[in-house]
Amino acid sequence: MRKKHFIILGRSGLIYFSWVLIVLFLCLIFLYESTKSFNWPALIFALIFLILLAYTYFNSYWTDEIFKLPFRAKAKRISKPVMISEWRFLKIYKIKIAEFGQYYLLRLEK
């Protein structure tokens, strides 16, 4: 049961990553509006942004039975992910989940 990590695409991915990018924009606002040489609030927001990105990547996965999103509880898969397109090491999958509908996923594979 190896975890397969992915990046969320589609409407749900757009909504989720727009909220994550708000933290990055706050970091940039604090950075550019400061008159100090070292800006602690900008550093703190940059670290929060990096932590959110790492949390998102490591808590977005699927296994043989489970599908996990960073903002949802674990759900059981009803079907296998279907590969929609492929380009070099990037693959786009479509997965159907009974309770939540369908998701589009971007997976980096070697």
Explain how this protein is built.
The chain is 39% helix and 31% strand. It is an alpha+beta fold. It has a four-stranded antiparallel beta sheet, with no helix packed on it. A four-stranded antiparallel beta sheet has the order 2-8-7-6. A hairpin with a 3-residue loop joins strand 7 (90-97) and strand 8. The longest helix is centred in the first third of the chain and has 24 residues, at 10-33. It starts with a strand and ends with a strand. The model has no long low-confidence stretch (mean pLDDT 83).
Which descriptors apply to this entry?
single chain, 110 residues, alpha+beta, four-stranded antiparallel beta sheet, 2 helices, 8 strands, elongated
Distance N terminus to C terminus? 18 Å
Number of strand segments: 8
Mean pLDDT: 83
Strand numbers in spatial order across the main sheet = 1-3-4-5
The amount of helix comes to: 25-40%
Task: Label the overall shape.
Answer: elongated
Radius of gyration: 17 Å
Low-confidence stretches: none
**What is the multimeric organization of the chains shown?**
single chain
Q: What share of residues are in beta strands?
A: 25-35%
Question: What would a concise description of this structure say?
Answer:
It contains two helices and eight strands, in the order E-E-H-H-E-E-E-E-E-E. It has 110 residues and is of the alpha+beta class. Strands 1-3-4-5 form a four-stranded antiparallel beta sheet, with no helix packed on it. Strands 2-8-7-6 form a four-stranded antiparallel beta sheet.
